[in-house]
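Methods — Computational structure assignment.
A single polypeptide chain was analysed. Its primary sequence is given first, followed by the predicted tertiary structure written as structure tokens.
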Amino acid sequence: MPATTTALRRATALLTVLLMALAGCGYGSLAPDDTGPSVPPGTPKTDGLDSVRIGYLPNITHATALVGHEQGLFQKELGGTRAVYAVLNAGPSVIEALNSGSLDIAWIGPSPAVNGYLRSEGHALRIVSGSASGGVRFVVRPDAITTAANVAGKRVATPQLGNTQDVAFLTWASEQGWTVDPLTGEGDVTVVRSDNKVIPDAFANGSLDGAWVPEPTASRLVAEGGRTLLDETSLWPDGGFVTTNVIVRQDFLRDHPAAVEAVLRASVTTNAWIDAHPDEAKAAADRQIAHDTGRPLPTHILDPAWESVRVTDDPLATTLATQAEHAAATGLLPRADLRGVYDLTLLNRIRADQGKPTFDDAGLGVS
């Protein structure tokens, strides 16, 4: 059998297994959240819709969604259309909820967005805005790891098979010259895929030697005595790389562009408010996290986590393309054409109307 055929079949098999693993993650909480501002009777509905279903994760890297929800900014833009929120447990869960029609628009990391786009052969999803950059660190136990070379032979956690941090760690490990099976996580380093909620306890009891994780998990590990071996911003030109995007179902974007535009206007407004009022925004994000998870973040975790994340409307499209190449190089995804994954039309219209610079899609936008 020709080597190219074998390689293609292996890549296809890897993608199939990966997507099956991602699909089994569950949706998290999809119960409607009715704690936001009430909709005054008689207020006109946006696009005639009773509701728009918005999903996000209760992470600091989803600060735009947290603050926009808590401050009622999404509801304000949607008018008489109810903003209904769903808090999920991982990016792949967001993709499954979107694909099932349980969500309309959501905040998500780049790797699940690419996975979802490829899974549907480019027919299901679009990235319509950026949301955050940064907020990812490689934290280690100082008694186990003192230098990058010490990572060989150790147990390192990432949040989930094929998620953004999983791809980033596998890429970094490969650059150190180590070999790791992308599906089992076995090799010169053992990759342990664990939920962010359980990683701190495993780290504290010595079951893990390190973890490549987003905020606020990274700051939790530091609070448990961990040390930051590497901040992922150091691996990217100018320190910028996409951590969170806004994605939407293509059919919803086609049928209800005014509703999508309303949500994006709120997103742009929220990011501007966060930049202008960082302390108030941090408190708002923490209040929403407390509502979503049952408890606020302690100050010694919240403060460094907040400082490490930068909100931005910029989708940082060139870095998504690089991350997709990384996923292919690790063996988690076959190389694929991502043209059409972005539609920045509404975002750029909003920003142009406000006299702000527009953003480039790196040649990956709709034609």
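Note: The longest helix spans residues 3-23.
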